[in-house]
Design a protein that fits this description.
By secondary structure, the protein is mainly alpha-helical. Helices cover about 80% and strands about 0% of the residues. Helix 2 packs parallel to helix 4, helix 4 packs antiparallel against helix 7 and helix 5 packs antiparallel against helix 6. It is elongated and about 60 Å long.
């Protein structure tokens, strides 16, 4: 549908609460993962699974609405891409939590804090989508903030990898497990950067 015609038609407002709910689940998942990586005794092992399952339910409701709605606030393909990328992000968090047992001594507090910061920025950005044409600057700041957190992650990952290579000779299997966990945790922050990219593209296409 041409953009000029879309602007003349009533928008399907019911999508925005679902977008917000999905972003809230991402933030909850990041909080669960932070607890698991920082102090495993302080977290409920099943809580992250429950949050990811709830996120999957929200994603399904978004897809169902896409199939039934005549008018959507953004192109259907853009909504699908944003929704699927956010759900994959939560699935990656769950994978990191499950890998934690293989390298319990690997310090990941710094990376997990970056994840929670990314999740907060993402939730604030998604909340702007209902008025995206008026809040472009806020959405751009969200994109820049997550990009900066991604850069910090790369520096932390490199430092941690050097530390592993320096002190892992006595326990090669343990070092390998820690390396896998570090890479998987780093991938979560990269996923946040990808989701922010999807949202940035979506806004640029529709402003």
């Amino acid at each position: 549908m041409p953009h000029w015609l879309r602007k003349l038609m009533p928008q399907e407002e019911k999508f925005f609460p679902l977008f917000d709910e999905h972003a809230q689940k991402v933030e909850q998942a990041a909080a669960c993962l932070h607890a698991a990586l920082g102090d495993r005794g302080a977290s409920d092992p099943g809580e992250l699974d429950r949050v990811v399952a709830q996120g999957s339910d929200v994603a399904r409701r978004i897809q169902d609405r896409l199939r039934s709605a005549f008018v959507t606030p953004f192109d259907r393909s853009d909504i699908k891409e944003m929704t699927s990328s956010m759900q994959v992000l939560m699935e990656d968090m769950r994978s990191v939590a499950r890998l934690r047992a293989s390298a319990p001594r690997m310090p990941l507090d710094g990376l997990s804090r970056l994840m929670t910061e990314c999740a907060g920025e993402l939730k604030r950005g998604v909340a702007c989508l209902a008025e995206f044409d008026k809040r472009v600057d806020e959405l751009r700041r969200m994109r820049e903030a997550i990009s900066a957190l991604h850069e910090r992650m790369l520096a932390q990952r490199d430092e941690a990898m050097v530390e592993l290579l320096s002190h892992g000779a006595g326990d090669p299997l343990g070092a390998l497990a820690a390396s896998r966990l570090l890479e998987r945790a780093s991938r979560v922050v990269e996923r946040f950067d990808e989701v922010a990219d999807h949202i940035d593209d979506l806004v640029l296409d529709h402003v």
